[in-house]
Design brief:
Helix 5 links the parallel strand 1 and strand 2. The N and C termini lie far apart (69 Å). This protein has 21 helices and 20 strands. Helix 3 runs parallel beside helix 5. With 619 residues, the chain is α/β, with parallel strands linked by helices.
């Protein structure tokens, strides 16, 4: 009995039967009713209900309001099976029923068509796959039929729209190559909404790359932008000279890292868009099997600056949102000015440079796994002095045993006495020589060496990736006996003061906002996070206090020699001594920046840091 089933279920059904590879190629993940309501309520339904409450006792204004909602038009330029259009239509019809009830239309009427003004003809969609287009049409008809049955029950007159003459316009085509005005003229449209494809730049097909180039041209390096960004730019172009409002569900990558500068720099500076409401990062959910394991945001924007703005935050990405009315929403979805942090190759402040660790580019032949270490040392004892500990980010955090051949200072005479090592070196040479990469082929001439040979006496190490469950990224010191791999950043001249600032809550707040994410995990960046970080103008006394507190953090760790950084920074197992040391360090760093207790919220900290960043870049 379809009277009890939402036609939006088609989206979940269609996703469930799609081939996993095809679903990834299309970026096709259908939106649940819960997430649709998260978007359409702040975009227009909340305001429509508020307006209804204001006019419901005035028959004339109520009639005008009814006419108004019957003239609204909606476009979903990536409509899939039509879930957004279906749920939006249902919500408008529910509002219409309340209007009719309040206007005294409860009495039995002979022709409901004279009263019902909201129509499926107000809805438009674009979808590149044929079958979802047809599904969207059927879904809209089914929802129309369901709402007509409800109208029959409420107003005492049987009513159906048969034959099926009115229909939503669902266009089969590529939204990025179509002129949207050929679907619906922009001066007739009210709202653009939907969930464009979830597709990271790494997974784009050649056709999708061509689409991106068509939309962006030479404006920016489209290879670094997620596919969804093309819908943002296309929408921003389309709404020029109108009051059309737009809202999309998107992966949260478009408000993180380098994409912020590339995308939002264009949207704000060239197209003058304003973000009017936003849901900060939440976990994607829908009713389909094979659903996307992604974290999303919802962003609503237009050419007019709506105030106050609505910003919904999530303490737990799987939990309920916490709404707040704010004056500003910037591209990082903070209550702050429109400041965009772009990549830079040198630090903004007078601090040591940060560099990436060593990439082996060796086909695994210079790396010695823990299970092979004893065998190599036993069979090739001369190699022992050329074997060092080797740490990628994983080994650094988890204290995993791993080793490498570091042959930088090995004379040829000794190398020739180590046949097992020579065999590995020869495999490196062949691997590099046969590579399609010209750089790798050049390196075949030096097969004993990593691509880089960075081995400072002592350095600060920062893992590129770290789980979001940690309050602090585990940062620490390593020495010349350990080779840092290319998933670690290293600061060769990092002092205790530098370590203290970097491991503080202030730097962590900055990193969480401006850095990128891998799913929800932190993704540290040298060009965005470190090089743009505004360091404090600390006095000598403050620097000494921070250095002392930073040493106390290291001392607290040293009390647990058998525990890895993963153990020490797990929120469930973090020792009280270490937490206390961090909190004291945080307090001193906050004081160096001039933050008070009331400024301790991360959003407040980052908003102030961004103002400081802007001041430093304008010098």
């Amino acid at each position: 009995d379809w009277n009890k089933i939402s036609p939006a279920i088609f989206g979940a059904m269609f996703q469930g039967v799609m081939d996993k590879g095809a679903r990834r190629e299309l970026g096709a993940h259908y939106t649940s009713e819960e997430n649709i309501l998260k978007l359409i309520n702040p975009l227009f339904m909340d305001e429509l209900w508020r307006e209804y409450d204001r006019v419901k006792t005035d028959p004339v204004q109520l009639g005008r309001f009814h006419d108004k909602i019957s003239r609204l038009k909606f476009l979903d330029p990536a409509c899939g099976c039509g879930n957004f259009l279906i749920i939006t239509y249902r919500e408008l019809r529910r509002l219409e029923f309340e209007i009719l009830k309040m206007s005294g239309s409860r009495q039995r009427v002979l022709d409901l068509s004279m009263l019902l003004k909201v129509s499926v003809e107000q809805f438009y969609g674009i979808e590149r796959e044929d079958f979802p287009c047809q599904t969207a049409q059927v879904g809209m008809w089914l929802m129309d039929h369901q709402m007509n049955i409800q109208a029959s029950e409420q107003f005492g007159s049987y009513y159906v729209r048969l034959p099926l003459e009115k229909t939503a316009m669902i266009v089969h085509g590529n939204a990025l190559t179509l002129d949207w005005e050929s679907v619906v003229p922009k001066d007739e449209l009210s709202y653009i909404l939907g969930t464009p494809p979830f597709k990271g730049f790494k997974y784009a097909t050649q056709e999708q790359k061509d689409d991106m180039h068509l939309v962006f041209g030479e404006i920016c390096k489209t290879a670094l932008l997620d596919y969804v960004s093309a819908w943002y730019k296309k929408a921003a172009e389309y709404i020029q000279g109108t009051i059309v409002q737009v809202a999309f569900v998107s992966t949260n990558s478009i408000v993180q890292g380098t994409q912020v500068g590339q995308l939002w720099g264009i949207l704000i500076e060239r197209y003058c868009v304003h973000i009017n409401f936003a849901h900060r990062t939440f976990k994607w959910s829908n009713e389909a099997k094979g659903k996307a394991a992604v974290h999303c945001v919802i962003i609503g924007f237009s050419l007019f600056n709506q105030r106050p703005k609505l910003l919904i935050d999530y303490e737990d990405v799987s939990g309920a949102g916490i709404p707040a009315h704010v004056e500003k929403i910037n591209p990082y979805l903070l209550n702050a000015e429109n400041i965009v942090v772009t990549g830079r190759v040198k630090p903004l402040c007078d601090v040591p440079e940060i560099i990436m660790g060593n990439q082996a580019m060796d086909g695994g032949n210079l790396i010695i796994e823990a299970v092979d270490y004893e065998d190599i040392v036993k069979r090739e004892p001369l190699a022992t002095k050329y074997i060092k500990k080797y740490m990628m980010g994983r080994e650094f955090i988890n204290n995993g045993p791993r080793y490498c051949l570091w042959l930088k200072d090995c004379p040829p005479s000794e190398l020739r006495q180590m046949p097992l090592v020579l065999e590995r070196v020869d495999r490196v040479r062949k691997m590099r020589a046969n590579s399609n990469d010209p750089g790798a082929r050049r390196l075949s001439e030096t097969p004993t060496l990593f691509r880089e040979s960075r081995n400072p006496n002592k350095f600060v190490a920062i893992p590129i990736t770290s789980t979001e469950t940690r309050r602090y990224i585990p940062i620490g010191y390593l020495d010349e006996n350990t080779i840092a791999g290319n998933t670690l950043f290293i600061i060769a001249d990092g002092t205790l003061f530098h370590f203290g600032i970097l491991t503080s809550n202030v730097h962590m707040a900055w990193m969480r906002v401006v850095g990128a994410r891998l799913k929800s995990d932190y993704r540290y960046s040298k060009d965005i996070v470190y090089n743009n970080f505004p360091w404090p103008d600390a006095t000598d006394e403050q620097k000494a206090a921070i250095e002392s507190a930073a040493q106390n953090v290291l001392n607290a760790r040293a009390q647990f020699p058998d525990s890895s950084l993963a153990d020490l920074y797990d929120p469930l197992t973090m020792p009280p001594e270490l937490l206390k040391a961090h909190r004291e360090l945080d307090r001193l760093v906050m004081r160096a920046y001039g933050f008070s207790v009331k400024d301790s919220a991360e959003a407040s900290i980052v908003a102030t840091l961004m103002e400081r960043y802007r001041g430093l870049t304008l010098r």
